[in-house]
Design a protein that fits this description.
Glutaredoxin; Interferon-induced_GILT; glycoprotein; signal; alpha+beta
Amino acid sequence: MGSPKLPITIVIPLILLFFTYDSKGASYDTSGSQIKPVDYEKVNLSVYYESLSNSSAVFIVKNLREIFNNDLIDIVNLQLVPWANSHVNQTNNAISCQNGPDECELNSLAACALNIWPNVDEHYSLINCFEFLAIERNIKMWQDDCLKQLGLPLEPFMNCFNRGNGTEFGQKYIDETAKLDPPHSFVPWVVVNNQPIEKDYENFTDYVCKAYKGAAIPAVCNVH
C-alpha cells in the first residue's frame, strides 16, 4: 500500500478527530439506559509490531484506528507491543532491530509513550503519529509533528527517551514477545484473547466481535 497523500501537517490534526465518540453504536436496556461494557468482559486485543515495518505501520494507521471510530474500543483492552522482531545481544545487552538503528529509536519512542501515558487514547494517538511518519519516511520530525501538535508534555517523554528507558522497556517487550505460543512468524502479529489470527489480521474486528460475550454490543458487530 502506498503512503498517505496528505502532508503530515494536515494529517496530524485529523488524528484528533478519531477520538470523538457518540452513542450511535451503543446498546440500551428496556428502560432506555445505555448498557456499558464490564471490564472483565472486554476482549484482549494485542498487536505485536515493529515500528519501521511497513505492514505494521499501515495496520496501525489504517486498520487499527477504526476501533476509535466505530466504538469497538469500548469492548477492547488494546495492547500495543513494539520491538516484536528485535533481539538482545546476551554479551552486552544491546538490542538490534530488524530494520536498523532508526527502528530501534522509534521503538524506544513507542515504549516511552506506552509507559508514560497508559491511557489508550493518548499513547495510541502518539504511536499512530509515529507510524504516519514511518510511512512517510520522515521519522526525525517526531518531536514537532507528534508531541507538539498533539499537545503532550515534552519533559517527561524526553526524560524517558534520553535516559534510555525506552530501550530498557524494549527488553521487557522482547521477553513478552518470546512467550507467544505459537511463536509469531511475521508482524503485525495480532492476538485476540490469546489466539493469533495470523494472516487474517486486517479482519480483526470479526474476531473481536465473536469473542465478546457482553451485552454492550457495538453496532459494527451487527454487520460482521
